[in-house]
Write the structure tokens for this entry.
Amino acid sequence: MTSNLNADPAELAKFSDLAHRWWDLDGEFRSLHQINPLRLEWINSLCPLRGRQVLDVGCGGGVLADAMARSGAQVMGIDLASKALKVAQLHALEAQTPSIQYQEVSVEALAEQQPGSFDMVTCMEMLEHVPDPASVVRACAALVKPGGWVFFSTLSRNPKSFLFAIVGAEYVLNLLPRGTHEYAKMIRPSELASYCRAAGLDLRHTRGMAYNPFTRRYWLNVDTSVNYLFATQKPAGAAP
């Protein structure tokens, strides 16, 4: 691991250790599988996936990437957690997922190699795990074509989010493995909006995500105080 790579070795190790559980619907990533249809439907409603060239940044075991490929997109998933990528590749083979490939490369390196190559870029639940999230946003903006869409999801940093996303989700309800998130690395919507503006991305839509522990149901709403999603777009006249 090179010292200038925008990745935290401890974070990579954490998700690599859980790699074999990515596709266990009742395991540590069950909440990811439960929210995936919501994310997919929202993305598809704003930028229909069929026929699109799509990049999934921080794809992990391929939960979203696989779903987007099955919705008709040509998908590349990238990550730096080797074991998670191997799980994603194995799942694609076993499930015979069409039009999908995975690569172990940083988003910054790929942006240098293939600028302006994708109709859409997704970066979900990843920004709060890297040392420099603004660098990831810039790279995502560089990779998307003019007029293309970039989708982000992450966690806000405030007392409510600490209570719900860390204390509640990780320690009380056991929705996520303990230690999944660090409060200091969470990103306020205003901060992410600033990163997007600086990268030349226009913020088009926002959504929040809520959870009812009694019904075990997730849904999208307008409250961005805990989990939230951004839909951004690169202006059509921007340089590739």
